[in-house]
Amino acid sequence: MGTTLTETKTLVGQSVRRKEDPRLITGTATYVDDIQQPGMNYAAVVRSPHAAARIKGVDTKAARELPGVVAVFTGSDVAELGPVPCGASLPGLRVPYHHLLAQDRVYFVGHPVAVVVAHDRYIARDAAERVEVDYETVAAVTDSEKALAPGAPAVHPQWPDNLAFTFEQNGGDFAQAARDADVVVRQRITSQRLIPMALEPRGVVAEWRSGDKALTIYSSSQIPHLMRTLVAQILGIAENRLRVVAPEVGGGFGSKLNVYAEEALMGFVAMKTGKPVKWIESRRENFLATTHGRGHVDYLEIAAKKDGTILGLSLKLIQDLGAYHQLLTPAVPTLSVLMMPGLYRFRNIHATILGVFTNCVPTDAYRGAGRPEATHAIERIVDCLAAELKMDPAEIRFKNFVHNDEFPYLTATGLSYDSGNYAAPLEKALDLVSYSELRNQQAEARAAGRLMGIGIATYGEICAIGPSPATPAGGWESATVKIEPSGKVTVMSGVKVHGQGEETTFSQIVADELGVDMDDIVVLHGDTTLVQYGIGTFGSRATAIGGTALYFAVQDLKAKIKKFGAMMLNSDDVSFVGGRCVCNRSGKSVSLAEVAGASHRALALPPGTDPGLVATKFWEPPNFTFPFGAHIVVTEVDRETGGIKINRYVAVDDCGRIINPMIVAGQIHGGVAQGLGQALFEQAVYDESGQLVTGELTDYAVPKATMMPWIETGHTVTPSPVNPLGVKGVGEAGTIGCSPAVVNSVVDALSPLGVRHIDMPLTPEKIWTLIQGGAA
Amino acid sequence: MKIAGYYTLPVARERAYDALQDPVLLAQCMPGCESLEPLGEDTYRMRMKMILASMNGLFEGKVKIAEPSKPEEFRLVVEGNGKIGFMKGDGLLRLSETDGGTDVHFEGDVTIGGTIAAVGNRLVDTTAKMMIRKFFERMTEKVRSEAATA
What we know:
Strand order of the largest sheet of chain B: 1-7-6-5-4-3-2
Number of helices of chain B: 3
Oligomer: heterodimer
Distance between the termini of chain A: 53 Å
CATH architecture of chain B: 2-Layer Sandwich
Radius of gyration of chain A: 27 Å
CATH topology of chain B: Alpha-D-Glucose-1,6-Bisphosphate, Chain A, domain 4
């Protein structure tokens, strides 16, 4: 794949085709399951079919007797190992000890109870079915509100109230705001549990070299370095004797922003058996045992003046945590409350989070992680307020936006919004749909008895997560740029690219700075032995923080290149342009390859300069970035079937400076797909006994291509002052803006019938029932 | 999941009551039942083949008759485990005399778990109803032929 560039243009800002795509679309990428090791065994995990039960015994004899079985490990074998880690800390947080395998009790359907190791994966699966576990079931609770009721079954017997934590966030004085208000609107709004559904399920290969005392774990992970630090702690081995490699990762969406029992477990198995071992999660296991997302019940109150001026917002957030804390489980809802001011100027906030244990698989980050839930709640309640005041939903938003001259803007929750022009994307989106004309069409449609809706949602995001004090494990990022003796450029980034396209965008940045061809740059990531250290890819941080670390590393390198250039040209006045060091007086020049060769051959060195051309930069961001945007969705609801048709979908995003418009569009499209999944189709449903009844793709409705509307994208560009690239982040924007815009649209369509709110997903059955005059 | 309904067996109440507790008859009438062996008083070990949509598998479990009150009512507690999951049922059977026989009213709870719950949940309701219907149809046939040969 060749990439041509004209001399005058920078690559940054162009829709350069993604370097990673040829291997992805030709099936030649290397995923965990493509890794083969000599003598490798295969593991299968025995999982609990019960949501809550005591384990009275585990009989592994029949499994061990099956020919080809190497070993079977149960809870007692791993009792001394460390717990699956929770990285979040909150005052008074109750953290149950999360063993790699269940000890005397299981807490959710899918809870790992034993692991079977065999010569091939088929024997392993057969043997797993021969493990007999004697369960004594106890009562389970799967609904977060029911779990809070007195007398509910206790998920963890030591905490009968099922409350893992309460957390308050206050700013200003909401009670006073409510007294000053002309109107207070209240609404219960949910963001249902979702299943992240990465195309590639999780997978682990572990290899132990006893002579080297070295363990290598290949895992489908978004955070290989953090995983190494934490898995080394679980296994009690030195961190520098563990190498973690995340090869090609087929999607994560937050579900691989974690450290799972199976990752440490395979390390343990490899060390115990002395042989490499592979475990690949089945799709059904992925439903049951990989973290879910969302799981909010929000009780909101918004206080406002008659003219639409919002005075304050109050929120009681009930977060379904599941049975355990995974890496960031309790931290996710705290992001929601930080987000509560949205794009608006009001100063009075009162939020309480109740973190609730349930007998379900843990929730954790899922595309947006707390921010889609918050935006959904805010943008819904603002629409409820507009309806109450009979105001236009666009007008009420314009009235309350933070003004352009107020940046950096300090919110009531203590955030400092970096830069913004919040009216701009909404104005652009309104123009794109010809808003006033559209409202006329709607009036005509209504007169004709048709249910047409126009939904508006604006959103702000917290991206580039984040400054280290605001994160559990450091919020910086690192990059090394190495110019090889031949002049080829190797980038080693601490971010773990897994579909976001940074191999391309990072190459664009480097190609512009060093004046080299895109194809001469290789971006390496995801291997703890190759890459210095890194935090990982999540929270729309990879380009804003990882890209900035890279940018600064390149600047260091350019200074060194110029020193070599000056020496080689025997000049004290050189520039580095277009991949050449040029003497500004003589016009003579040397190429980067020549400089690279000289720096490595080292026959002569500039004064005070070491051989080689390598630079490493760890960059700590001074702040988050705060992208924003507006989505407008035009729908028509079929009275007869309750079906929803999306006639227009307009997404205008401001993610700061854009490095690659095609990649930004792709991120918006993918984000909208997942937002539509939540708004219209998806829901993880546990029955009362704790069985996941949406445990298959036949019962869990992930959007398909045919279910997607045509998405019209637009942009406004407000560069971020936080980093020199001016970028903000775009990985989650599509999801965050989508669900409230869709629901606002459908509620608008049904408003002539007196409908004020509908909880997601907006299934035809639910809509039809509402049209028939029933409660959905 | 709640299950309730009734069937009429064409025999007198005493006979119906005994037939519904006769391990040989039960084994013959329960769809998929491969064996039913006494395990203790009013408790039996059961092996049963279950077919649900694309899944089928052998269940091993226990059947227990509880709170017998001849000839009016008894409770039937069934538990089974297999490769495709587990099932538990607990139901009260009430027998009342009616024209031409005995009405058997049943009312109970069925819980399923494991793969069958994740995959076949939507089919469980209809499958359970079908199995109960088959059971009573076979039982009707058995007690009718028994009455004919008596």
